[in-house]
Task: structure prediction
Amino acid sequence: MVSLGLKNKKYLEKIFLGIFFGFVFAIIFTVFTSKPSFHKNTKKIVSEKELISQYYEKAVFEKPKNLQTLNRMYSTVEKKSYRIPIVMYHYVEYVKDQGDTIRKSLDIIPSVFEKELKMLNDNQYKTIFVKEVPKILSGDTPYSSRSAVLTFDDGYEDFYTDVFPLLKKYKVKATVYIVDDFIGRKGFLNEKEIKEIIDSNLVEIGSHTLDHFYLKKSPKSIATKQIIDSKKILENKFNIKIETFAYPFGAFDQYSLDTVRSAGYTAAVSVIPGIWQSGNNLFYLSRFRAGSFSYDNIIKFFENYKNK
Ligand SMILES: [Zn+2]
Result:
């Protein structure tokens, strides 16, 4: 009886330990495999910090495996690639709050930005809009090996105060990706400023969804609305044609890519680092982050850049 009781006790201990560790494992598993749930409520007001810190989620930068396979299915022939550097900027300003490390890490100070523009001009680089890239890839517009594209995500107000005067000074073009709901919000471009930059003919406006929505694996109905409605709203508000799209956080999947294509956009930019563009990646054109090179070697960086 005694030995049987001891055995039972040990047996019960094992069961309890099993349940305990199973429980711990379940918690860990849930935490690590749960999908990021940004902006589930599409009307949620996001803080700027929350908005940009997500760029550091490396997972969203990677091209989904199934997309690579699907793209191979779409096209059995590898399309011709062109070397067209597309640079992705966020802030160009003198950051006031020195403790704001995220903003600082995404920032290029205006004097450095100006040197980059000067260097592009000095080296006969021609800046083009993102909407011109598909025309080059299809052969409708001649390709120059000295083409470069400057893109600015989110529509921060410093684009008007710091970037726009320099674009005018150096006659350089840029593409700005606007989030509809952010227009006029503190720290972002307002309607009047957007109208003025459009009238300069130096700026292409593209869509960046209704409220900076995380598209990868999101419900299809919401993704569709974010992609289609954001285009219509910008087109009606500014009486222009919106031709290109930027995925917030660089996050996309096959569904969002197909929706961008069928909504009538002609191209979309991703945050997958690279310099080669082709018909194969027309809806996730490669970009690299400003700041991955120093201002004094932007040209060298373009010319020596190798896709991994
Ligand atoms: Zn963004």
About this structure: The radius of gyration is 23 Å. Confidence is low (pLDDT under 50) at residues 31-45, 56-61, 69-76. Residues 90 and 99 are 18 Å apart (CA to CA). Residues 153-154, 208, 212, 248 surround zinc ion (CB under 6 Å).
